[in-house]
Amino acid sequence: MATFSASDGTRLAYRTYGEGEPVVSIPGGPADSRYLGDLGGLSAHRRLIVPDLRGTGRSAVPDDPATYRCDRLVDDIEALRHHLGLPRTDVLGHSAGANVAAQYAARHPGRVGRLALIAPGARAVGIETTGEERRELARLRRDEPWFPDAFAALEAVTRGEDADWAAVAPFFYGRWDRAARDHHAASRPENPEAVAGFGAEGAFDPAATRAALAAFEAPVLLLAGQFDLNTTPRSTAAFAGLFPDATLVVQEGAGHSPWVDDAERFTAEVSAFLA
Fold first, then answer.
1. What are the helix (H) ranges across the chain?
2. Distance CA 75, CA 125 (A)
3. Under 8 Å between Cβ of 31 and 5
4. What are the tens digits of pLDDT across the range 128-171?
5. How many Cβ atoms sit within 10 Å of the Cβ of residue 59?
6. Would you state the pLDDT for residue 158?
7. Who contacts 132 (Cβ-Cβ below 8 Å, separation ≥6)?
8. Sheet with 2-5, edge to edge strand ranges
9. Angle at CA 110, nearest 5°, toward 108 and 116?
10. What is the pTM of this model?
């Protein structure tokens, strides 16, 4: 694993998969980027540069907890681009990492070739998914054996009650099998300070970000999982509507990590876009 220095001196790590033109791939969580792996084999088409966001994985914990904020993480992506010597690069963001990617594109539009937002978190642009929208989507899974316990936990979460988050996990995958269970365990954040700091006050300015993205001229892909309760296909479509040149793809049978549910379909869609 290679490292580079952020603007504040924090030592940050990144993984590299594959060869060819680079794609800076920003993980969600904030969690150890190992959960992305090589994105279902996308590394056969492009070189993936996958950073561990500060305080996660093998990246150092910063001296200043305020630098965990999403808008401050944009500076780390710019430092990584500079470290790699790239005048511009394609950028991919998954889940919460899509907030970082979107703010990066808003702030540095000339540095981005193509932008891919996968199961994107949308706090940076002020798009919210309602509890009823999540319940409506969840009911599509009513024939699954785990549905009763998972739906009861989802209802509790929607009401703001203490709930068993582990019971909700099956809703975030197209198939709740061994691979999904292992992936879910690997993707769980391990630094609560980083999670709390990510969305701290000042992290998002939706109006300003929306205005900047409305002028973002590069091609954008927004890929949603059909069953994703985190950012539903409907919310992802609203996100796509903020860009002048956006393609929306809804991957059937997939959840929040679509490369886990159907790697072949996922890599075909994303590699074709990046090509």
1. 70-84, 97-107, 131-138, 147-158, 165-168, 178-186, 192-198, 206-213, 233-240, 258-261, 263-274
2. 18
3. no
4. 999 899 999 999 999 999 999 999 999 988 887 776 778 899 99
5. 26
6. 83
7. none
8. 2-5, 11-17, 47-51, 22-26, 89-94, 112-118, 220-225, 246-251
9. 75
10. 0.96
Sign, Cα dihedral of 247, 28, 215, 226: positive
Instruction: Give the rounded percent of residues in the chain with a pLDDT score beyond 90.
Output: 94
Q: Cα angle vertex 228, ends 142, 198, to 5°?
A: 135
pLDDT given at position 179: 95
Q: Which amino acid is at 9?
A: G
pLDDT cut 70: percent of the chain above it: 100
Question: Token pair of 235, please?
Answer: 């919310």
Q: Return the bridge partners of 91, or none.
A: 24, 115
- Tokens 């391990």 — which residue? 190
Q: Which among 60, 37, 67 has a CA at the least distance from the CA of 50?
A: 37
